[in-house]
Amino acid sequence: MDKVSETVMAAEVDHRLMQEFANGDPRAFELLYQKYKGGLYRYFIRQIGDKQLAEDLYQETWARVIKAAAGYERRAKFTTWLYRIAHNLLIDHVRALKPVELFSDAAIEGEPINDGQPCMQYAPEQLTTQGQKATILKECIALLPHVQKEAFLLNMEMGFTAVVIAEVAGAGLEAIKSRLRYATQSLKQCVEGKWQEQHYDTK
């Protein structure tokens, strides 16, 4: 079975489980929860860095899934719908702390990224072949602007394409492509710079 078929089948299973949960089967929710709990929690903890707050938003996301189950309609894949809820909760929280202007969806002009595949221009393992570089990469990700960090993490950890990330973030496709492009460029420069600094310091 190819990857496209596997993705379609997984989406069908998720949709069926949501329907079963809406019809009163708690086991269906448990299966969805077990399937996505790890990725969803990492999404919050990597975005925020505050474990308690990440846990609160994580639990609230699942609470909203439960609340919305009765009216769930298949307008998008379950994963897109789930992360859209998570995204909205995160934005609501950060907007209470920072100016709304930080979340402008304006695109930066540039060459388009292929939106048919995950939009990484280099594989994460190329930057994390050693423990030190893995640590540096995490530090550099934390320094990214919020919108770039979210797009990058959804792409890297969830394998979402630019099209799906645009649906999650409620942003234009070209804006998402720009965020991914500038995030990967910034991370590459940041990791290389910090690595050279550490390497120089040890000489």
TrEMBL record:
Tell me the protein's name.
Answer: RNA polymerase subunit sigma-24
Output the InterPro entries linked to this UniProt entry.
RNA_pol_sigma-70-like, RNA_pol_sigma-70_dom, RNA_pol_sigma70_r2, RNA_pol_sigma_r2, RNA_pol_sigma_r3/r4-like, WH-like_DNA-bd_sf
Q: Which domain of life is it from?
A: Bacteria
Question: Which lineage is the organism of this entry classified under, starting from the top rank?
Answer: Bacteria, Pseudomonadati, Pseudomonadota, Gammaproteobacteria, Alteromonadales
Homology family: Belongs to the sigma-70 factor family. ECF subfamily.
Q: Which Gene3D superfamilies match?
A: 1.10.1740.10, Winged helix-like DNA-binding domain superfamily/Winged helix DNA-binding domain (1.10.10.10)
Describe the location of the RNA polymerase sigma-70 region domain by residue ranges: 32-97
Q: Which keywords describe this protein according to UniProt?
A: DNA-binding, Sigma factor, Transcription, Transcription regulation
